[in-house]
Amino acid sequence: MIEMKDVSKTYPNGVVAANGINVKIAKGEFVYVVGPSGAGKSTFIKMMYREEKPSKGNIIVNGINLPSIRNSKVPLFRRNIGMVFQDFKLLEKYTVYENVAFAMEVIETDPADIKPRVMEVLDLVGLKHKARMKPTELSGGEQQRVAIARSIVNDPKVVIADEPTGNLDPETSWDIMNIFEEINRRGTTLVMATHNKDIVNNIKHRVIAIEGGRIVRDEQRGEYGYEN
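== Cell division ATP-binding protein FtsE ==
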């Protein structure tokens, strides 16, 4: 589903954020990406959805070689990628329902198909009863649930999450992880960058550790391996 071949990334200021990365992530895997601050995790994640381009190498996601596609084709590529961020990125003037429906409207889904699908994913994240509320009326955990619903409403092949529990309390973080687990059980590949040691050590999945722009550890059912 995802493959990086000899990928390097050097920013204009000379910072090397990726250095000779080779990795494969299979369809249906759940992978944690861990490492100290400034190690290159965010760049690693951003290159998977073409927010950043590598300086060298190839990145193939869902059969598409990202460095070679035109900028105009990036939105089309992202239709098959769900993205979840630490700061939710919700549209505050829209209701919960409208935030999720918007992801379907921009790809011109048949209007008749939108409502049942939106309500289905809101039910999955436990927010069907708050469909008419605005993001400002929700807790942080509820806002992240909306963001997750939006990320999966178009049934993506891959969900990429960058510190999705970073702004949440421990109890809410576990609730979010239960949703991710269910999404993964349904067959979606999930890649999650995180600093949450407890989650990584208690909900076992593959762990890719990055330091200095290099993969230094890649373990099935691995552990976090760093002090927070």
